[in-house]
Write the structure tokens for this entry.
Amino acid sequence: MSRFPSSPWRPYEPRFIFPTFSGLECRMGFSIPAWYRPVDIKYLRSLVAGSLRKNFLETVKDLVPELGSLAMSGLSKNLRFRLHILSRDGEYRASYELPLSYKPGASVDVDFTKLLKDLKLPVEDYLVVAVMSRGRMDGYRSSPASFSMTYIDQDNVAIYRTGAFARPLNEGRLKAHVGFTGINPKIIATRDVVSSLMLINHSSDPEYAVTAHPASILIREDGEQLEREFGEIPALGAREMSVVDIFGSRVFDFLKPFGGRATTVTTCQGVTLGSLHLQRSNDNHRTLLGIEHSRPAHMNLAGILQH
């Protein structure tokens, strides 16, 4: 398997992974807040307050890597962005660094349809790991704002927003993961629209090599269920499956008494997965009608899951 070049990102650099879709105009946008500073008083206070609650050895253990990452990332307010392009199977394809650095108040916009063409990559579906040179030095180690992903065709625009993080993810030597549970209460399967779920098996470790094997349950309003394997997802790869792909064509008759609507619960042991929820037209073109990243709070769905 083709892997990243050496040191594709540093531990303190926030990053996230997202898909591109062949045949769609795909854009990434990011606006740096005018208030952004890599270090602020709140962060420094938290360092001092945290060290006062610990003994000397614990303080040294925590502060040395913290101060080291701060020194490595620097104090400049300017941000730079790098992009690593992978196949949906997690195979490395190319890297690109935006030529400019961006100050607070500036905006970044990348047209991936054009970029992929400039990089002489074939027209197909990809994954992109976006890396920013530094983020907020706080407990979240995150981007100071959300990235906006936009997908455009002749008739539709689909958008979702998400943040970038520098925390350990699926990196066993730093943090063990119990597993993943994803809930989508807005599943649709009708003659017009079919829902899809895309799961991304990402990691903060560029050498990550664990294949994920999720399973999905489809739950009707009356509590009746269908359960199937989602399909394996290679390391640093992604898989999109519609509810028809997962549960078969009988899903239409199964959900017809309930207007084609249901909830899915998808689980996977031992790894954390990224999830995107898509709505596509139920035709040969399977046009992308909508895409979401965040889900409602799980407690809001307790009544559904108790059936």
